[in-house]
Known about the structure:
By secondary structure, the chain is α/β, with parallel strands linked by helices. The protein is elongated. Strands 1, 2, 3, 4, 5, 6, 7 and 8 form an 8-stranded mixed beta sheet that branches. It starts with 13 loop residues before the first strand and ends with a helix. Helix content is 42%, strand content 19%.
Amino acid sequence: MQLQKATRKKVKLRLNLSAPSGAGKTYSALLMAKGLVGDWEKIAVIDTENNSASLYEHLGPFNVIDLHPPFAPERYIQAIDACLSGGMECIIIDSSTHEWSGAGGCLEANDKLAAAKYRGNTWSAWSDTTPRHDAFVNKVLQCPAHVITCTRSKMETVMTDDKKVKKVGMKDIQREGWEYELTVSLNIDRDTHTAVASKDRTELFDGKPPFVITEETGKTIREWCDKGIDAKDESNKKEWLDEDHASWVAASEAVKSGKYSLDQIKAKYNVSKRVEALLTAAI
């Protein structure tokens, strides 16, 4: 445990697109992904929407995993692992809704578990189901690739100011709080196909007018993600602090005393290659 100054690190995107059916979630996610990684062949779609992603194959040679029922959290995790094994840099999950409310998803699985194990008590059954859902969420949050999730929203019909009937998305069909797990959540309007932010840690979209998602949107997000130091550099720094700092302090004091040769110091303090290089420069 070490107290240190806050340091901005490079990050991977965790973004959710929420909208009713027909608003353009899949198309928008593909364009954003292209701008984000710049290469169609590094993009994969985990498609639970009856092969709908493949309708956009004319955009470029992206990859697809067609995921069919049961939509258990574990199968989503397996699909993500398959994408990572294939070297994908951006994974689109279309849609995350089936993991929650689809055939074999968490809601259905919980009902069956309650009937079989808890005498119909669904509340008690969540003690088994919640960890499975949490494993899926954690897989998304800790994924070493960019992740864009598409989530259906419940559709409601409202009357607009000009007395026209309009269908709008009101709430994500996922577990409560899903959108707050991620870095950015954008809601897409079904009629105009424009997006607004409901949550935005990047400060790129919050409070901005509705906009159409394009490749440029992905490029803008990529610039934000790439700000800061590489997480690997920070890991190397920690390794230096943990493993080399003590030997460096002792060995550098020996150098200052002038009593020992470099070979004697190396043997005495069992220094690493990194410390040896510093000592050589100091001498």
